[in-house]
């Protein structure tokens, strides 16, 4: 590592928390899968990753004490011959569960799965990027594959610095472990996977997707529920180009029977009042030693699994619309794109949503436990049928 490296930034409280989470829920990666038709030359993909990563140095970081520092070395493209993702039980996929490579200190990796459908999987430790940061890097990889100049994200700015500059308008939300999960609770079996990772495609799209999902989940839980909605802080500085963690939560409290319109009004009001800025290091957990943080996370997982009491009922994250036609390159045409959310012991449900080709691709990480799997499958079926019915009715008006 050269002493002349110019890109470095402080590790923020949010990111320090993710180190502890990675120990409890390895590999704690955000993974974005692009399924396509055709073939890709691994060398061409590696060159594109090299070009895009030079423009997005936040994809080349390793830890150096209290800082992230750019190694100057792009993520490695790893070819996994003859493999395709293990649907429907993605939690059992050996590749998705494998450590990032080629060395333990690396934070980003790209997989090329050669079985049908050919799939590119972008893997990122959440400690260096948020979901929109991943998207910025991925978009630039596909620009480079097409021979287009990457947009780039050269700014070494993360959430703590931006919030300190903007200021917070109020106080943090009070976090109490009182909220249910729509997938229910159940004691965890040490012989089973602690988490489930399942996917659904919704053959429709439209307005208010996050609010609609929250309304369905609260109705299914038949109890007041709280939802964590990650908000992209880049909205406060449109000139900022950074792949770092720049998302803070907006909390929505939803009662069974609330319409999606009322949930959406609550979401819009929170955004207008900039309430997400109040949540920087909410609870101050990162001030404690790592062993204490890990103990708190383990306890939170046990209370959620056994008693059904959670700080939030679910996280619902929407990464926006992808134009698959613009991502096509000679010899390879993307047909779907899916965000595969990381597992987290403190979170009973974490939904990752993207839109492409007039469809919603919804993937959920769910805390596993006795009886949870069939309830999760029924919940996802209900979510899909409700969304398709509502969105079709809305389009017909």
Automatic annotation (TrEMBL):
This is Condensation domain-containing protein. It comes from the Bacteria. It comes from Nocardia bhagyanarayanae.
